[in-house]
Automatic annotation (TrEMBL):
Organism: Nannochloropsis salina CCMP1776
Cited InterPro entries: Metallo-depent_PP-like, STPP_CPPED1
Classification of source organism: Eukaryota, Sar, Stramenopiles, Ochrophyta, Eustigmatophyceae
Signal peptide: none
Protein name: Calcineurin-like phosphoesterase domain-containing protein
Amino acid sequence: MKLHNEGRKHIIDVLGGMKKSLSSSKSQAHLISLGDLGAYGEAGTTACFEHAKAYLDGFQLPYNLVTGNHDLEGMDEFATDVENLQAWKKVFGINAPTFCHQIGDKTLCVGLSTTRFRSSPFSSHEVYIPKEQTIWLENLLRQHPEEEGWRVLVFSHAPPMGAGIRVVQNVHIKNGCAFLNHSSGDEERRVFIRLCKQYHCIKAWFSGHFHLSHDYEDSITAKEGTVFVQTGVMGEKSTRDGRRQSRVVRGDGAGLHVYTVNHHKGGELRLDVSIRYKPGGEDLVEAHGHEDYAHDKWFSAYRPQEEDGCYLQSPDGIILEASDHGGGEKVCWWHMADGRVLGVHEGQVIEYDAETLSPLGIVVDREQLQGREMVVVGEGQALILVSSLDALNEKTTAADYDIIHPNQDGSYWRRWQRNKLVRQREKEREKIAADWLKQNFK
């Protein structure tokens, strides 16, 4: 906890400095946790929640919090997600997994929480927001319109699909848990970005989940009138890129200023973006340059663009030849006849959401695709893999090629990661069987 305690002091010092510089006596600070409390092995337990509460109380600030996927992972202590969530609420003294707090003049902070882990149909690490929370959110947005001067800041553990925030392709995209409701149906995934498009009172949306720093150009994006902000981590063990950072947001009535607190640089403060409200029009978003990583060497997921030059208007025929696999540099994307969007990137076949063009998941991985040719046939009705088109002849049988069939819901991407509780119970049964065999057949 040494680094976490150090990080807490950094934030308290920054807020103290800001308060001194503000002329208004009404200035107030409010803390928000984006979830995933505790360390590996104890996440989601009562002890973890109590430890986290003591830590958050140490800021001596009013605070709200939302759940992350790991906050419902206390499977040894709780039999169901409902019991796990109830324990979280009890420890923190709250009644609902959502919150709405007025932070300033006509400015709301609103939080959404994931509510399932054991009951997830696919990856347990999907950050799932149930329908009752989205209904609650839309009602709240409807009651606080931009036309009346309201500004809403939304907080969730994962970002909405379509936010354009940098993601970890081989972890969160592959496992179907990068975005809110990622492994759920199209409508459930798209509802959040549609709300941003419909209700311009949503000025900013803050999320974490990826354990990435703020030092990427796409750690802050502007889409559909909303600024989306990635938030990093404090702990050394949980950072993916070695940097430990938190966000501080300052409002001044005319807009917002989003800062980074660099914990690995002794609490250094850096201004990243300024948002100036413009009633009845597009807000002005001014990004402030800073030291970046070499982006191409770090975690990213290619996102098709309408004018990127990689779109195939008529995809019939060979999409990928065996000779294209050398450096995995081929990039292209196209629409299948059913409207689904597929593409080739880094030697893999990826499916993209047809509405937002965000990456959904991997259809064919590098190993399966290596040395094979990919062909779209029937005017986009079928996708097949063959070792070589030249080797096909009248004696060719179904054993000589693979058809990439869509899933039952019409999507093509594969659900690589299964529910954690199911996998855990399988291991338990395997151990029981192994012990029985050992005892009876020595």
